[in-house]
Amino acid sequence: MRCFIAIDLTTDVRAAIARAETRVRTAARDADVRWVDPAQFHLTLKFLGAVPDDRVPAVSAALEGAVADTAPIALAAAGLGGFPSLRSARVLWAGITAGVPELARLAAAIDRALTPLGFPPEGRPFRGHLTIGRVRSPRAGRALAAAVEAAGASAFGSWTASEVVLYESRLKPTGAVYTPVSRHPLRGARA
To answer: At a CB cut-off of 8 Å and minimum separation 6, what does 89 contact?
Structure first.
């Protein structure tokens, strides 16, 4: 199965980001973007790719160990942007503005726990974000960048991440469908 590890959003934060996504879609309707269904918004900590079914219990156990000493993380989302840059974006995102160091430590702990299972660590620094769209072609790129900039200063709200979820991702013609495989509470003491 195709898997990734993520943190879920609250309904309010999800709705606020969805409103910003709608504003961008409306302002840049000719842009060639595959928009993420707001029900699928999440904060990815690590993409695993294909995981054989018989390896999923080991991944879950390693993940449980990796997050057990981590305290719940206070997060906030605000602003829109693009990777690698807004002018040549391939990914459109909502930013994470609080809890960034804690997320980076959590992602590093997950990397360390999963490396012995054959999942190599990320080759670049962790950049917490919420993907809202994937740009398929640069058509209408200028209008898209302007629409993102116009909506870019939005604050989407805050929440406390209290668990990490191992998800299965099934690709369908209508888009990916994410199903929780296991949930792992953040049980550490707050500093």
So the answer is: 81, 82, 83, 135, 141, 144, 145, 148
Distance separating alpha carbons of residues 131 and 144, to the nearest angstrom: 15
Return the domain boundaries, the chain.
2-185
Per-residue pLDDT of the chain (191 residues; tens, 9 = 90+): 999 999 999 999 999 999 999 999 999 998 999 999 999 999 999 999 999 999 999 999 999 999 999 999 999 999 999 999 888 899 999 999 999 999 999 999 999 999 999 999 988 899 999 999 999 988 778 889 999 998 867 899 999 999 999 999 998 887 788 999 999 999 987 75
Report the top-level CATH class of 2-185: alpha beta
